[in-house]
Amino acid sequence: MHRIVRLFTCMVFVSSLLWGNEERTLESANALQLIMRNQPESIPVELFAQANAIVVLPDVTRVGFFVGGLFGNGVMSIKGINGWESPLHVALGGGSLGFQFGVERSDIILFIMKYEVAEAIRSRKITLGADVSVAAGPMGASITHMRDFSLKQDIYAYANNRGLFAGVSLGGSVIGADGDARTPADSFAAKSFVETLKRLERR
Q1: What single string gives the DSSP state of each residue in 83-149?
Q2: What's the whole-model pTM score?
Protein backbone atom coordinates (compact mmCIF):
# COMPACT_ATOMS: atom_id res chain seq x y z
CA MET A 1 0.00 0.00 0.00
CA HIS A 2 2.81 2.40 0.92
CA ARG A 3 4.52 1.63 -2.39
CA ILE A 4 1.34 2.50 -4.27
CA VAL A 5 1.05 5.80 -2.38
CA ARG A 6 4.70 6.65 -3.11
CA LEU A 7 4.25 5.74 -6.78
CA PHE A 8 1.12 7.88 -7.01
CA THR A 9 2.88 10.80 -5.31
CA CYS A 10 5.79 10.48 -7.74
CA MET A 11 3.41 10.45 -10.72
CA VAL A 12 1.64 13.57 -9.46
CA PHE A 13 4.98 15.35 -8.96
CA VAL A 14 6.20 14.46 -12.46
CA SER A 15 2.91 15.45 -14.11
CA SER A 16 2.83 18.78 -12.26
CA LEU A 17 6.44 19.45 -13.28
CA LEU A 18 5.63 18.74 -16.93
CA TRP A 19 2.55 20.96 -16.72
CA GLY A 20 4.67 23.70 -15.17
CA ASN A 21 7.09 23.43 -18.09
CA GLU A 22 4.30 23.66 -20.62
CA GLU A 23 2.54 26.47 -18.75
CA ARG A 24 5.68 28.63 -18.87
CA THR A 25 6.03 28.01 -22.60
CA LEU A 26 2.37 28.82 -23.27
CA GLU A 27 2.66 32.05 -21.26
CA SER A 28 5.71 32.99 -23.33
CA ALA A 29 3.91 32.26 -26.59
CA ASN A 30 0.90 34.31 -25.46
CA ALA A 31 3.13 37.24 -24.44
CA LEU A 32 4.84 37.22 -27.84
CA GLN A 33 1.52 37.00 -29.70
CA LEU A 34 0.06 39.85 -27.64
CA ILE A 35 2.99 42.15 -28.31
CA MET A 36 2.97 41.50 -32.04
CA ARG A 37 -0.81 41.83 -32.28
CA ASN A 38 -0.86 45.16 -30.44
CA GLN A 39 2.46 46.51 -31.76
CA PRO A 40 2.84 44.89 -35.21
CA GLU A 41 5.16 47.58 -36.60
CA SER A 42 7.36 48.02 -33.53
CA ILE A 43 10.03 45.37 -34.13
CA PRO A 44 12.04 45.47 -37.38
CA VAL A 45 11.55 42.43 -39.59
CA GLU A 46 15.35 42.16 -39.87
CA LEU A 47 15.59 41.13 -36.23
CA PHE A 48 13.34 38.11 -36.74
CA ALA A 49 15.18 37.22 -39.94
CA GLN A 50 18.72 37.55 -38.57
CA ALA A 51 18.34 36.46 -34.93
CA ASN A 52 19.91 33.12 -34.05
CA ALA A 53 17.73 32.77 -30.95
CA ILE A 54 14.80 34.49 -29.29
CA VAL A 55 14.08 34.67 -25.56
CA VAL A 56 10.63 35.54 -24.22
CA LEU A 57 10.26 36.30 -20.51
CA PRO A 58 6.62 36.93 -19.53
CA ASP A 59 5.86 38.92 -16.40
CA VAL A 60 9.41 39.90 -15.43
CA THR A 61 9.26 41.68 -12.07
CA ARG A 62 11.29 44.72 -11.00
CA VAL A 63 11.14 45.62 -7.32
CA GLY A 64 12.77 48.56 -5.59
CA PHE A 65 13.30 49.68 -2.01
CA PHE A 66 16.58 51.60 -2.16
CA VAL A 67 18.09 48.37 -3.51
CA GLY A 68 16.41 47.23 -6.71
CA GLY A 69 16.01 43.75 -8.12
CA LEU A 70 14.81 42.15 -11.32
CA PHE A 71 13.79 38.54 -11.82
CA GLY A 72 11.80 36.47 -14.27
CA ASN A 73 11.50 33.14 -16.06
CA GLY A 74 10.82 32.31 -19.67
CA VAL A 75 11.98 30.27 -22.61
CA MET A 76 14.58 30.46 -25.37
CA SER A 77 14.35 28.90 -28.81
CA ILE A 78 17.49 28.57 -30.94
CA LYS A 79 17.32 28.62 -34.72
CA GLY A 80 18.99 25.39 -35.87
CA ILE A 81 19.62 24.01 -39.34
CA ASN A 82 16.13 22.48 -39.29
CA GLY A 83 14.39 25.57 -37.95
CA TRP A 84 13.42 26.70 -34.46
CA GLU A 85 14.24 24.20 -31.71
CA SER A 86 11.93 23.26 -28.85
CA PRO A 87 11.96 25.89 -26.08
CA LEU A 88 14.61 25.74 -23.35
CA HIS A 89 13.73 27.24 -19.98
CA VAL A 90 15.79 30.24 -18.89
CA ALA A 91 15.92 32.58 -15.90
CA LEU A 92 16.82 36.28 -15.69
CA GLY A 93 17.96 38.14 -12.59
CA GLY A 94 19.81 41.25 -11.50
CA GLY A 95 20.14 44.00 -8.93
CA SER A 96 20.87 47.71 -8.74
CA LEU A 97 21.49 50.46 -6.20
CA GLY A 98 19.84 53.87 -6.04
CA PHE A 99 16.71 55.76 -5.09
CA GLN A 100 13.97 53.44 -6.34
CA PHE A 101 10.66 52.27 -4.98
CA GLY A 102 7.77 50.19 -6.22
CA VAL A 103 7.00 47.10 -8.26
CA GLU A 104 6.83 46.88 -12.05
CA ARG A 105 6.03 43.93 -14.28
CA SER A 106 6.92 43.63 -17.94
CA ASP A 107 7.04 41.09 -20.74
CA ILE A 108 10.55 41.06 -22.20
CA ILE A 109 11.81 39.83 -25.58
CA LEU A 110 15.49 39.31 -26.34
CA PHE A 111 16.76 38.92 -29.89
CA ILE A 112 20.08 37.08 -29.77
CA MET A 113 22.03 37.81 -32.91
CA LYS A 114 24.97 35.43 -32.44
CA TYR A 115 24.75 31.66 -32.17
CA GLU A 116 27.65 31.47 -29.71
CA VAL A 117 25.79 33.78 -27.33
CA ALA A 118 22.75 31.49 -27.42
CA GLU A 119 25.03 28.52 -26.73
CA ALA A 120 26.59 30.37 -23.80
CA ILE A 121 23.13 30.96 -22.30
CA ARG A 122 22.28 27.30 -22.81
CA SER A 123 25.45 26.06 -21.11
CA ARG A 124 26.04 28.61 -18.34
CA LYS A 125 25.00 31.98 -16.92
CA ILE A 126 26.18 35.19 -18.60
CA THR A 127 26.06 38.83 -17.55
CA LEU A 128 24.42 41.19 -20.03
CA GLY A 129 26.58 44.18 -20.78
CA ALA A 130 29.73 42.46 -19.50
CA ASP A 131 30.03 39.04 -21.13
CA VAL A 132 27.95 40.10 -24.14
CA SER A 133 26.74 43.43 -25.50
CA VAL A 134 23.06 44.33 -25.09
CA ALA A 135 21.11 47.33 -26.32
CA ALA A 136 17.56 48.61 -26.39
CA GLY A 137 15.99 47.38 -29.61
CA PRO A 138 15.26 49.80 -32.45
CA MET A 139 11.63 50.76 -33.00
CA GLY A 140 9.99 50.50 -36.41
CA ALA A 141 8.87 47.99 -39.02
CA SER A 142 12.30 47.94 -40.69
CA ILE A 143 15.80 49.31 -40.14
CA THR A 144 16.18 50.27 -43.81
CA HIS A 145 14.90 53.79 -43.10
CA MET A 146 17.16 54.23 -40.04
CA ARG A 147 20.27 56.11 -41.01
CA ASP A 148 23.61 54.98 -39.56
CA PHE A 149 22.05 51.93 -37.90
CA SER A 150 23.23 48.34 -38.24
CA LEU A 151 22.67 45.23 -36.14
CA LYS A 152 26.05 45.12 -34.39
CA GLN A 153 25.02 44.26 -30.83
CA ASP A 154 24.92 40.71 -29.48
CA ILE A 155 21.42 41.14 -28.04
CA TYR A 156 18.52 43.55 -28.61
CA ALA A 157 15.93 43.87 -25.87
CA TYR A 158 12.31 45.02 -25.78
CA ALA A 159 9.79 45.34 -22.95
CA ASN A 160 6.01 45.58 -22.89
CA ASN A 161 4.76 47.29 -19.74
CA ARG A 162 0.99 47.84 -19.47
CA GLY A 163 0.71 48.33 -23.20
CA LEU A 164 3.72 50.66 -23.41
CA PHE A 165 6.21 48.97 -25.72
CA ALA A 166 9.81 50.08 -26.14
CA GLY A 167 13.41 49.01 -26.26
CA VAL A 168 14.88 48.38 -22.82
CA SER A 169 18.37 48.23 -21.34
CA LEU A 170 19.18 45.18 -19.20
CA GLY A 171 22.87 45.80 -18.57
CA GLY A 172 24.10 44.02 -15.44
CA SER A 173 21.37 41.37 -15.47
CA VAL A 174 22.31 37.70 -15.49
CA ILE A 175 20.62 35.15 -17.76
CA GLY A 176 21.11 31.43 -18.10
CA ALA A 177 19.41 28.08 -18.51
CA ASP A 178 16.96 27.23 -15.74
CA GLY A 179 18.30 23.76 -15.05
CA ASP A 180 17.90 21.24 -17.85
CA ALA A 181 14.19 21.88 -18.35
CA ARG A 182 12.98 21.87 -21.93
CA THR A 183 9.41 21.71 -23.16
CA PRO A 184 8.91 18.49 -25.18
CA ALA A 185 8.98 19.26 -28.90
CA ASP A 186 5.73 17.34 -29.53
CA SER A 187 3.77 19.15 -26.82
CA PHE A 188 1.05 21.66 -27.66
CA ALA A 189 2.95 24.43 -25.83
CA ALA A 190 6.20 23.92 -27.75
CA LYS A 191 4.40 23.71 -31.09
CA SER A 192 2.46 26.88 -30.29
CA PHE A 193 5.63 28.81 -29.40
CA VAL A 194 7.56 27.62 -32.47
CA GLU A 195 4.64 28.30 -34.81
CA THR A 196 4.39 31.83 -33.43
CA LEU A 197 8.07 32.40 -34.24
CA LYS A 198 7.60 31.03 -37.76
CA ARG A 199 4.63 33.30 -38.44
CA LEU A 200 6.50 36.36 -37.22
CA GLU A 201 9.54 35.41 -39.28
CA ARG A 202 7.40 35.27 -42.44
CA ARG A 203 5.52 38.54 -41.89
Answers
A1: EEPPPEEEEEEEEEEEEEEEEEEEEEEEEE--HHHHHHHHHS-EEBTTTB-EEEPPPSS-STTSTT-
A2: 0.80
